[in-house]
Structure to design on (371 residues):
């Protein structure tokens, strides 16, 4: 087996984070790319919000423990393909290997969440019976948690992730296995190549894993190992959002749903020239009225219905977004986003998140094709 580095691997120092260089084609379709990637992240946040009863910070704490839990060992007899996938996870630095037990201090250091908050979330997770205590005094995920976040959930989310990756590559004109650092961009005017629809189910079926391994018999399930790639991607994104929004992750979800309602008609209508629409938004700049022209306004009711967030909570978040000038109110219509959120997070932030998604998707495909 590949030797395992026993130093703590921080989620803030990933291979994808080392590359803030945008992929070829990004400048021409930046807002379209941010929209497609953002909608995947919003779908995930909506799902997590419902799974965790509205407590998005609880999901961060559990996800961080999950990334440590599998580190350094595999459970039960091992299919050779499962072992290869595990070694790829270590090689790609997806697993964070801690020299000691997973404690509140380790989780706080890795996530930026205050230690007392981490302790309270661990108490909640233990009440749900999603965490148990190890003989060394740390914490580990229980069988109840594995059953709750089961096979269909992992496979469906992975398939959505790879489909999003394929759409982003079509927008950018990238090859299926391309990842940072980026090579010389293609010649201007080159059409994006049609990419095969290799969903997780297709790749999983084509892999050379044994039948027992695919069905989860005889030890660690490969679908759980694949899920660690995706869990790591979401965890890194949530940690960044938590830091940038002072812990208010619901604000991000409300903003994301408003943006989705605003932009889906403008960006996804048949025959829409994406480059022309990008140019219109760029020309509008800080003029929020011009920026929102052609967008479908959103209201508190539609956001609440889409997410399950209580309407009063949505109204409070909308009031905060209005104060920040990230959205504006259109009389008798609703709310539209402004250019300020993109400006606040900055180009490097969006590029790093995009490169992380493209890198993670390439790692998942490579891991499945290699077994």
């Amino acid at each position: 087996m590949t030797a395992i580095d026993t130093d703590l691997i921080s989620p803030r120092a990933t291979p994808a984070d080392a590359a803030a260089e945008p992929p070829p084609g990004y400048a021409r379709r930046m807002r379209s790319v941010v929209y497609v990637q953002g909608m995947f992240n919003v779908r995930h946040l909506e799902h997590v919000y419902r799974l965790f009863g509205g407590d998005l910070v609880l999901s961060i704490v559990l996800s961080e423990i999950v990334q440590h839990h599998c580190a350094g060992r595999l459970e039960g007899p091992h299919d050779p393909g499962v072992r290869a996938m595990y070694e790829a996870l270590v090689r790609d630095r997806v697993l964070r290997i801690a020299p000691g037990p997973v404690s509140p201090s380790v989780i706080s250091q890795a996530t930026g969440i205050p230690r007392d908050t981490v302790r309270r979330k661990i108490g909640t997770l233990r009440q749900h019976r999603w965490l148990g205590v190890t003989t060394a005094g740390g914490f580990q995920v229980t069988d109840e948690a594995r059953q709750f976040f089961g096979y269909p959930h992992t496979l469906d989310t992975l398939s959505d992730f790879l489909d999003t990756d394929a759409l982003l590559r079509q927008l950018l004109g990238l090859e299926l296995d391309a990842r940072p650092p980026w090579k010389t961009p293609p010649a201007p005017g080159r059409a994006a190549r049609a990419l095969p629809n290799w969903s997780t189910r297709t790749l999983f079926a084509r892999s050379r894993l044994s039948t027992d391994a695919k069905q989860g018999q005889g030890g660690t399930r490969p679908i759980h190992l694949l899920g660690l790639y995706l869990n790591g991607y979401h965890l890194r994104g949530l940690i960044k959002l938590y830091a940038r929004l002072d812990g208010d992750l619901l604000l991000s979800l409300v903003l994301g749903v408003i943006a989705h309602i605003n932009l889906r008609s403008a960006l996804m209508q048949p025959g829409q020239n994406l480059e022309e629409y990008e140019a219109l938004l760029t020309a509008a700049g800080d003029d929020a009225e011009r920026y929102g022209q052609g967008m479908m306004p959103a209201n508190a009711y539609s956001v609440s219905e889409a997410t399950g967030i209580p309407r009063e909570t949505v109204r409070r978040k909308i009031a905060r977004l209005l104060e920040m000038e990230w959205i504006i109110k259109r009389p008798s219509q609703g709310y539209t986003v402004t250019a300020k959120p993109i400006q606040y997070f900055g180009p490097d932030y969006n590029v790093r998140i995009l490169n992380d998604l493209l890198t993670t998707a390439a790692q998942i495909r490579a891991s499945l094709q290699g077994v």
In short: The chain has one domain: 16-250+345-369. Residues 16-250+345-369 form one domain. Residues 150 and 224 are 9 Å apart (CA to CA).
